[in-house]
Amino acid sequence: MWGKLISSNGEFQTNVHMLSDGSSQNVDWNNLAVANGKIMAVWEDERDQSSEYADAFGSVWHIYHNTGSPDVSYNFGDEILMITEAVIFSKVIAPEGFSEWEEFHSNYEMPIGNIRFDILNEQGTQILMDNINPGRDISSISQDRIRLKATFTRSIPEDTPLIDLWGVSYIGSDYDPPWTFYEINPSNPDGNNDWYTVSVEFSFTAHDDVS
């Protein structure tokens, strides 16, 4: 049995006591015991000067006090829930006039924890592309309806991975023909019998939908 002490609100103790059910190593471990479905951690409040171990506190298993000694006390608290993993799913993404998927995008923060991104089928039962990062090419996905999945993991309550936004880009069907815009400089050049008498600059800009 290994572990660390946590406070009543589920936070790890900052002094990081290590717990062990043995005393074979010369380190500052506290001792654990199990009885009646309970886990008990015990240590002595005063250093055992006669102990040969380097413990900051002498183990109660190795000091000569009877079980009714006022020097040893314990308390059973209530269990505290600490959520270390969470999952979110997007709505079904089903673009109109879909032709091909392009890229996965996301803005997120991971101070200490972790976020894993996956792309699923529309039912959310099959992983189509796993463990992807923003900018990943997703054009190999043939399904035209997908969901996004994000899995958050953390080791302590203070860790809080965050997603600001996420999504995908795609190529759709082209319903509008391309067009070209042009400019003349000067806008009204001097001319004579269809010949310009000054230098004229023509600028052409091609457009396709909103590009």
Task: Output the keywords.
211 residues; mainly beta; 4-stranded mixed β-sheet; 4-stranded antiparallel β-sheet; 0% helix; elongated
In words, what does this structure look like?
The protein has 211 residues and is mainly beta. Helices cover 0% and strands 40% of the residues. The protein has strands spanning 3-4, 18-20, 29-35, 38-42, 85-89, 98-109, 114-121, 127-132, 146-153, 162-172, 179-185, 191-192, 195-196, 201-207. A four-stranded mixed β-sheet has the order 1-2-3-4, with no helix packed on it. Strands 5-9-7-8 form a four-stranded antiparallel β-sheet, with no helix packed on it. The protein is elongated.
Short note summarizing the structure:
This protein is mostly beta strands. The chain has no helices and 14 strands. It has three domains: 1-82, no CATH class; 85-172, no CATH class; 175-211, no CATH class.
Number of strands: 14
Tell me roughly what share of residues is in helical segments: under 10%
The total number of structural domains is 3
Distance between the termini: 63 Å
